[in-house]
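PROTEIN DATA CARD
Card holder: Pentapeptide repeat-containing protein
Chain length: 228
Origin: Micromonospora coerulea
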Amino acid sequence: MRTTTVGDVTVLLPDLDPEDLDQVTDLPDDDLRHGLVEGVSWRGQQIADLSIRGCRITGADLGEITWEGGGFYGCEIVRADLSGAALTGVSIERCSVTGSRFTGTRLIDVRLKDVLFGNCRFDYATLSRVSAAGSVAFTDCTLVHGTWSSCRLSGVALRSCDLSNLELDSCRLDGADLRGSRLHAFAAPLDNLQGVALTEDQLPDLTRMAVNALSIDVRADAARGHDR
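Structure generated from the sequence above:
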């Protein structure tokens, strides 16, 4: 059993042996199990209720796919391109996703459990009603200019990520570990962030958020009169 620990979050990872996997090039009509998927292009495909289990997917072009239902279980996904994809009602469980691109991707009603995202790009991505049903960690990921709404991501780890200009609306990120992450122009209601873990050098960004949330009027000191 493989695990990795990010902050206080321990993620259960897939344990695949490439010698046990069969080479796959075509998108199957039925569930895909124990496949080695390398360098394929399924760009723009429409996929429904397809489950991929125990597979290693490397260098795949999955950009602009429309995927509804099904999901990934016990998979390793490396350097895949899902830019512009739309995933709805998909489950991602016990998966490692590294070096992959989710630029402009829409994740809707997606369920995450024991998932590690490492060095991935989620710039301009939209997450709606995404939920963490178990351990979830993002490390060294870029999530700039994204929009997250109605997500349930309590206790996730977002370590050493770039969260600049990321906007949260009605999300539960309470107890999340944000240490080492860049929070420039990060926007979220304060009650979405209850109990998050930060480092001392991140406090100015939190102060800025509080000032904006409370519409505090910060003014220069009034000039003092001089005695004659």
